[in-house]
Amino acid sequence: MRIRVCTDIRLPLKRKKILMFSPGNIGYVHFKYERMTLFCFFCGKLGRNDSFCEERMSLGFEVAEMG
Fold first, then answer.
1. 31: confidence class by pLDDT, cuts 50, 70, 90
2. Which of 7, 12, 14, 56 has a CA positioned 20 to 30 A from the CA of residue 29?
């Protein structure tokens, strides 16, 4: 199923959500996002990439170049 939603991009994007269909019947929905510009895979926020993540820098992770 594909849906379009409005969301606050200052908050991290959700990867999955728990849904309760009936008492005792729980399921998970996994999200996939399309057409995003800059996205930080470390903190999950839009508008920056991994190399400029404030949370990553404050924890002291080093930048590793790939390829």
1. confident
2. 56
